[in-house]
Structure formats: structure tokens, C-alpha cells
Amino acid sequence: MVSRRGSETKAIVCVLTDRIRISNQWVSHLSFAGLLGVAGFVFAQQHGLFRNLNNLKLFSGREKDSGDDSFLVPGLQNLGNNCFLNVILQALASCKDFRSFLQWVLEDARGSLAGEQEEQLPLTFALSALLQELGTVGSRRSVSNPRKVMVTLTDYAKNFNLTSQQDAAEALLHLISSLQEEIVVCYRPSQSSNLSDILFSRNLRMLAPSEGLHGLMELKRWHKHLRGPFDGILGSTLMCRTCSSQISLEFQFFHTLPLSPLLHHGGYNIMSGCTLEHCLKKFLNTEKVENYFCYRCWHGAALKYLSVIGAAETEIEKLRSCGGEDQCDCKTSLHLQRMPWSNSYSHILKQLIIARFPKLLCIQVQRASFNMFEEFKLSGHIAFPLVLNLSLFTPSSIGVNIEERIEMSSEYQKPEASKNHGMYRLVTVVEHFGRTGSGHYTVYRSVRVFSQEEEEEDCDEDLSWFSISDSEVCRVSESDVLGAEASLLFYERL
Ligand SMILES: [Zn+2]
Ligand SMILES: [Zn+2]
Questions:
Q1: ipTM topping 0.95
Q2: In the chain, what are the helix, strand and coil shares in percent, each to the nearest 5?
């Protein structure tokens, strides 16, 4: 696991091991406190925020005892305030689909690109190598170095300073869009398809693929390159309840789902008992849109008005045959500008829907809030499940509201084939301590470990959780993980 940078990493491991061996509990407390700032640390300690500190201490005591279950994942060096990036790198290392996506891109490029991959796809190459390293479970402590990824990322995200404290969710989005930029530039259509058949529009959409199987495969390959595993699609629909029409339906890709917690009155605290399901429901709930003009409702009202005032049959027919599109000229051509009308007749609702379940689902709990004077952080626990069923939050057809859907799904047994559709397993939790814009990030990672005997029999996997604060790694229990005040949650589709 340390072969690529053998001597360098080994040296770091030695230094860290020595430091931990000599450390008593105060040294480990103080090194942690140094990261947070003393004030934040005292606050966190008073409020019991360091459930893991005891584990960290225990861990340093357990150094010499390398028993049968003392396997570990590598930590990551902090190269100066980059804990926000380290947690993202650890999180991505836990996402099997993300690691295999990077490997697939490199593999795919091997056939079509001339020259060294390290030169052509420097960020993909560096990230893939680091994530493989972080994904390797070992029996000894090791610490990996994120420097190469940081250097290559800086070339793309020039305005994103990686050495001053940043938001972890923002770092993830920068990393994804930088990768996208690199991968798209290096994309070459496969030899079997004709380059002239493939046109790219400015917004990175492939237009008019060549016909037949090759064209379809090329399109799939292009989408896979472009979107990666964070490939969810969010639909946004506007409906008019008054005339039961759909005004608009738009789709967009999403990398993360930003969910706001439920708040107590006043909006300074997260409501006790708030769950991730509550937040999802709130996010996907219909909301009333004010001051929006429904053309179909207007046409209905205009038809009644013309009949009442005894207008000519030809005028009524013109209105009736109009599709009620927002571009029509009924208002002016029929002199209806003065018709008494208020848009409050229409009841317009907006709703977001998850139109495609992503392979990897990243949920961003929006804890940053504002009042009149300043930005503040919403702290408090939001319960989240180990297994999430996202299909419960997706209306089967537009207009069916989510509560009805939940009732429906519990009433009727789903067919066997679609049983796992929309089912997700928790793989990583990112937690933030301290104030927004400063403080410290830590991460919980789940790692699947196969013991040798099990591998021979039926490959039963053993899921272990680790708490990681930069270079410090320790094993924790599932309940430690579920107790976290999550900022980011990564779920993998089952
Ligand atoms: Zn309407
Ligand atoms: Zn019209």
C-alpha cells in the first residue's frame, strides 16, 4: 500500500508511530486541540462532542498489540488546513463505484490516448492511485500523502485555495468538476465510430450520435465519462392544481442533494427528533408558487367571460381551439386586456423529484444559516439510516404527493425485480466541529473486510467502521457513526 512512495511514506509512518508511542493522553488531547483552536476544543469537550477521543487514546495504547482484528485503513497527512479535502478523499476511497470509475477512465484512455496517462490525465491518475492506497486495509498504521492530488487539482480549480480552511462539500464539487474537465478534454470517440458523426454542444451534450448500435454505445460511453457515478437527475415541475395542468418540467444533473434540516420556531436550532427522512420530505415536498401566471386558467376564465358578454361564436371558437400556450395572442387579438382576472384563481405548485437515482448519493446537510447579523452553524443531531430507501420519496407520476406514495408502498408489495431499486447503503459520514468557515472535519468510513477463511467459504463480508481525523485512525462502532452530527452523507446504491 505504500509501494509508490515507499521510503517517503515509511518515514512518515515511523515519525507518527514514534510520536504516538511517547504520547500520553495529554499529548494526544493537545495535538487534537491544536487543530481546532483551544476555545472550540473546550466547547466541544464540554458538550461531549468528542465521542471518539477516548477511542483515539485507546488506540495509541493499542499500538503494540497487533491482534487478529487490529486492521486499519491509512490516514492522510494534513499539509496545512486541508482536513476539508482529506475527509472528501477518505469518503471517495470508501465508494467502490467511484474508485472503479477512475480505473475505468484510465483503462479506457490507455487504448485511445497517446503518451503517458500521468501526463494526459494527471488528476485522474493521482486521485485513482491515492484512493487505491486509502482503500487498502493493512495491519499496520500508515499515513498517505494527498500532495499529488492537491497539486494536480490546483491546476484546474485555480481560485479554490486548498491550504486555507474551506467547505468540504465545495471541495467535493470542485474535485468532481475538475475531473470532468480533464476527462472531457481527453475523450476520444472509439475507433469504430466516425468522429464526424459526433457533435458536441457547448454545454457538453453530445448531439446526433451516429445511428445504430455503435452510435448508442458511443453515447453511453460519453455519458459515463462525463457524469461518473454521481449521476443523479433532479426534475423540477410546476403544476396548476386549479386546471390540473403541468406548466413546465425541467431536468438537471446533480452531484449532491442539499437538504435543510427542520428547525424550531425562530430558526436557530434543529428540531429535536429531526431525521434524514424529514429533510428529504421537506426537500421534495410541493410548495406554493405566488405570482405565477397560468395561461390555461386564464383561457378557461376568458371562455366564460366571452360567453357571458355574448361575444361572437367565431371568437369563442378561436379561444377554445387555442392550446393555451404562453406565446399565444388571444389576449390582444380578442381585446381581452380588460377582462377582470386575478392570478390568485390559480393554485400553482412547484415540486422537485428525483428523476434518476444516482449510483452514488451524496447528501449535504445544510448547517450554515444566516440571521440579520452573521452566518451561524445549526448544530444538533439528525438521525440517518444505514439503509435508505429513496424510492419512498419519489412520486411514481407527477402530482402524486409523497405521503400518498409512502402509504401506497406499504400497502402494496412491490414486485421482486424492483425490490432493490432506490435502496442505498451508508458508506461514509463527514462531520464538522466548530464554527462554519473554520473548525475541523473528521470522517467515518465503512470498510468491507474479508477474512481468509470466509473468502474460501462463502465470502461473508465483515463491515468495519473507522473514525479518521487526518492521520489519526481508529475503529469505532456502528452506534458511534449513527451518533455523528453529519455534514455530508455518502450512500452507495445496492
Ligand atoms: Zn391553471
Ligand atoms: Zn390562446
A1: yes
A2: 40, 20, 35
